[in-house]
């Protein structure tokens, strides 16, 4: 018998939990306005003058909505690339069933104990199992490098100009989900705002998915908004928690802004970005925990991914349940405050598309503990003896958990 919380709950267990009646009083933040939701900034001098019951705001330069991102010098995290020989050694060690990193035994107990727990505020109802669409299409199979049978993707669709992509496995399996229940309240849409060529402050059209892992900590993919790093221009990242119809289900005041970031990205295993938020939205909406992926969970259809892929809708959330992890490969190491951590490429059969980058790949480790094992990065194609394998890929491993724990200590 597995100890409670050491393994992801099965679909049958989630169905039983979903049938339970929630007797807590509804404490969701309907109509709440965050302190910085309607913040404004100016690069000039600002003054406020009261005339009767009115206040006049004057600025010597244009006034724009938002909170600017202030990237620090160490915002671009250091990565350590694996050599082909090191990757081959790690692959062989996994095949032999050993937990080993570059000649050092990695204790299984340490891997299993590395975790950050989730938080659900009392009065926020839970959705253990969102409605699942029946898969469509015909399944295709190939042979993996180790000789086993693997399910191959049905389609990999690229748009004509190549800017957007879509990967669907064995028919569409993502369903629209109005995120009024936990943990979907903690999934956020991210929008980039910046000055255009005319000097107008606009939504640039660039967006991604992110999710809360602390009271004011958000996690997304490291490649999100990568053209804007380290003060390359004046810009802001708007965060819309529980987004539906391009605003929070809890009202237009439930938005916040990214104030600073730290990211890594040299491969899909370490495609990670931490963001500190201007407001403590996780206190009222809840946040995810994090776990190190264990290869014992391979092929279990227990994982969920939720986000804003463009081919479903960039304005409303979609989610997919019953995802399986098909393989895990070593990723490049990341360095955080002088410590080096291993990362893992978590290959899975989640449907995905542009805009889903930064989505949580998670399961339930107990009744109040949804934990991510990966941050969605994109898709990759592996070449095997039996044909190409196309998989979705998420960034995970020790590095994922360690940066979450660090951010909770340092930024929360």
Radius of gyration over all CA atoms, rounded = 22 Å
Shape: globular
Biggest sheet descriptor: 6 strands, antiparallel, barrel
Residue-averaged pLDDT: 83
Cα end-to-end separation: 36 Å
CATH topology heading: Thrombin, subunit H
Number of helices: 5
Domain module count: 1
Percentage of β-strand residues: 35-45%
Structural class: mainly beta
CATH class bucket: Mainly Beta
**Annotated CATH architecture:** Beta Barrel
The count of DSSP E runs of length 2 or more, i.e. the number of strands, is 29
Keywords: Signal
Protein name: Serine protease
Describe this structure in words.
With 412 residues, the protein is mostly beta strands. It has one domain: Thrombin, subunit H. It is built from 5 helices and 29 strands. The strands form 8 sheets. It has a 6-stranded antiparallel barrel with strand order 23-24-25-29-28-27. Strand 24 and strand 25 form a beta hairpin. About 11% of the residues have low confidence.
């Amino acid at each position: 018998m597995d100890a409670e919380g050491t393994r992801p709950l099965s679909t049958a267990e989630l169905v039983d939990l979903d049938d339970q009646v929630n007797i807590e009083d509804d404490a969701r933040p309907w109509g709440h306005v965050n302190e910085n939701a309607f913040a404004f900034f100016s690069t000039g001098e600002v003054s406020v003058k009261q005339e009767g019951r009115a206040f006049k705001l004057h600025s010597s330069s244009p006034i724009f909505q938002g909170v600017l991102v202030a990237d620090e010098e160490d915002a671009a995290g250091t990565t350590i690339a694996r050599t082909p020989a090191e990757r081959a050694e790690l692959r062989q060690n996994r095949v032999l069933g050993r937990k080993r990193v570059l000649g050092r035994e990695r204790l299984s107990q340490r891997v299993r104990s590395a975790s950050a727990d989730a938080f659900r505020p009392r009065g926020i109802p839970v959705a253990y199992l969102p409605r699942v669409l029946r898969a469509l299409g015909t399944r295709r199979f190939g042979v993996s490098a180790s000789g086993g049978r693997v399910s191959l993707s049905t389609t990999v669709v690229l748009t004509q100009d190549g800017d957007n992509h879509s990967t669907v496995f064995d028919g569409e399996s993502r369903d629209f989900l109005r995120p009024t229940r936990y943990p979907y309240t903690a999934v956020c849409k991210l929008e980039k705002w910046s000055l255009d060529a005319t000097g107008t402050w606009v939504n640039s059209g660039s967006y991604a998915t992110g999710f809360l892992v602390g009271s004011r900590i958000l996690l997304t993919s490291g490649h999100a908004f990568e053209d804007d790093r380290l003060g390359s221009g004046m810009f802001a990242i708007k965060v819309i928690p529980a987004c539906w119809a391009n605003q929070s289900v809890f009202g237009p005041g439930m938005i916040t802004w990214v104030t600073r970031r730290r990211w890594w990205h040299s491969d899909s295993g370490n495609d990670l970005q931490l963001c500190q938020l201007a407001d403590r939205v996780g206190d009222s909406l809840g946040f995810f925990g994090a776990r190190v992926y264990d290869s014992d969970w391979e092929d279990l259809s227990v994982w969920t991914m939720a986000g804003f892929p463009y081919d479903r809708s960039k304005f409303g959330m979609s989610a997919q349940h019953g995802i399986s992890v098909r393989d895990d490969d070593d990723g490049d190491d990341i360095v955080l405050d002088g410590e080096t951590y291993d990362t893992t490429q978590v290959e899975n059969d989640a449907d995905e598309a542009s805009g889903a980058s930064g989505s949580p790949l998670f399961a339930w480790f107990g009744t109040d503990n949804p934990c991510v094992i990966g941050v969605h990065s994109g898709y990759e194609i592996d070449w095997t003896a039996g044909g190409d394998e196309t998989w979705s890929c998420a960034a995970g491993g020790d590095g994922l958990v360690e940066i979450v724990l660090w951010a909770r200590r340092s930024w929360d």
